[in-house]
Amino acid sequence: MATTTTEIPRKFHQAVEKWRDTYLPDFAYLMENWDRYFPRDDPFRLCAYRECGMPCSIECGEDQGKPKYTRACDMKPDAARHLVSAIRAQASTEFGSIQQHQLTLARAQDEEEQAMVLRMMAEELRHGYQMLHLLTDDDWQPVTGQTQEQTVEEILSMKTGSHVLGAFNIDFESFVDNIVFCALIDRVGKYQLSLQKVSAYSPMADSMPQMLREEAFHLATGVVPLRRWVVKAAAGSPMITMEVIQKHLNKWVPRAYEMFGDERGGATNVKWGLKPMKNAESQDQYAKECTKVVRDLNMRYLRARLPELTLADADAGLATLERDHGSFQGVKFEELLRLPHREYGRRRGVPAFSWVGVDGERFESIEVYLQHLTRTLPDGYRATRDFQDFVENLQAVARGEKTADEAQKSMPQLRRVGGVCPCSKSVRWVAEEAIELPVSAVGA
Amino acid sequence: MSAEAIQVRSLTELDLDGIVRIGEKTRNRYEPDLWEGRVTYYLRRAPEGSVVAEMDGEVAGFMLGDIRSGEFGIEEQCGWIEVMGVDPDCAGKGVGRALAEEILKRYTARGVRKVRTMVDSSMPDVEAFFARLGFEVDTLRSYCMTLGESRN
Q1: pTM
Q2: Do A409 and A390 form a contact (C-beta atoms < 8 A)?
Q3: Helices (H) and strands (E) in chain A, counts
Q4: A268-291 pLDDT, tens per residue?
Q5: Do the Cβ atoms of A154 and A416 come closer than 8 Å?
Q6: Measured between CB atoms, does B47 come within 8 Å of chain A?
């Protein structure tokens, strides 16, 4: 399991460092305090890793068994176009998540949790760097029509609102977002990285193992604080409640499902050997995993509420609550967390703009559904442009002015317009009639 | 249940609940904070260096370890097995051996030539377990001093 390390060309490396100085201003603090927070861990290094000894033959799809591609020019043009879109989207998410985390990093109430998130941000920077390595170590110009300089500049000029995927265009409002995002959105990232580990393009496959190692810590960065927060909530802490956590699950889970791409898609990825699984199949596995996360949190909460319970009693108590939706020794089912229904709050994919509630309940009128959204989403999020656009499109679909398909294509987005200038003035709100949806989604 | 039903894989944060359960069953203490700290430590260092055994989709055992050098005068890269636990309900089914074989395989693949662990002599069954795997008593000895007590 040896790895090789390399740096991207100097001018691009320096561009990433400059980007880091702007969007990750606490990086120097992290480096200065690395041994304090992460004693004995290897120091962080901004470089690209490639795993040695990975499979040389294509592992799935119509060319299964043939040698993997080491150069883009050897791939079918359509497959190369598909792949470069995925690499760009992946890069966008890595850099995009840092911009989101930075907004509320300073609002952490716990120094250890803050340090973990800061390290995670540095590693996301490295993941973005890894994708730039893929884009600058090969010649993609016949596919993209862009020079390497243009491609790197385009990626590094994206800001919250202009990223490829919806989850990375939503501002964080509090440190709860940082933690829930790590637990849920990074989990999608883990799936995408695992799928891309079998990519028919070997530089992509070889890039995944080190990213996956780092991603394992990112998930813990989300799940462990959540486990501690539910204990605080059980103790009646004024800092965090189960309701607040639930509302943040409601905010992020729909975006996570959408990151897998449309439920009907993904076959092309499989056909070209870029991923071994279609979108719906990956989404199913993700949902199963999130269900376990939520159940474990509920068990942690129940045992904090009723510390005298034995393990067996706690298991029985949680099972009773889940089955009867009643109460157990004073703990009500409503106090527990639940994974929002797969069709709740969706704006992409098969259930886009349907009126489905957190528990899968269906609504007869848009007015009642909007009231449900009001009750189930964080207050701060409801004041955002993102939510406003969602509501306006919901209403347009309800009035019959748009189909759900048209609505998901016309969600206004902050998009880069004109040229390749990295100046933020080239990014503004644009409502287009036909924004092309990414065929295949990726994650941080 | 047969040994074939044991699936060994890398540690993930999803294993926390299962590990806390095994800790509670074997130590008679519910210590989620302790295990959350430990699992986070091993995940951030090298998730592939620690393994979990599953039976029927549940965590049946875990072995947490690490590769380090420069400690106790040992300059070479050395694999350490530091924490392990097997669900008592799965005892005698080969879970411990499956965990050890996987972790030793992984350490070998990473170029490690020596693997170390420390076992309390009051736990002869654990000593016997490692002896069966081929571990031998090392020249490295554990020393301990209790602070705050008068010394002769």
Answers
A1: 0.91
A2: no
A3: 17, 6
A4: 889 989 899 999 999 999 999 999
A5: yes
A6: yes
